Amino acid sequence: MTRFTLLAALVAAALASTWAAAQTAAPAGDPLKGSQKVQMCQGCHGILGWRTAYPEVYHVPKIGGQHPAYIMAALKEYRSGQRSHPSMDAIAASLTDQDIADVAAYYSQAPLQTAVK
Questions:
Q1: Domains in the chain with CATH codes
Q2: Which pTM was predicted?
Q3: Mean pLDDT calculated for residue range 67-90
């Protein structure tokens, strides 16, 4: 029983330290600073009903009102290559973790807009 208790305590400690590291890994976003970093985003994501023709025709998603964790994850995935789109890859590559957090904070407070058909 003592070995089991020791093993359980070690596993619990490892999980707790991993959880604590994950909680402190992401910087806090500043929506005001984010508003000064979205010029490249507005060209596509700020136009209702916008479609892009490169590399294929598709509707550009609106990101205003989106959850900040989703925006942060998406930008980090473009930056790492887990997601791929030529424009987004280049833009995300230029962003720091703090830039990503600021942009996500800005867009999470912006109202969600949808195109009217």
A1: 28-109 (1.10.760.10)
A2: 0.69
A3: 95
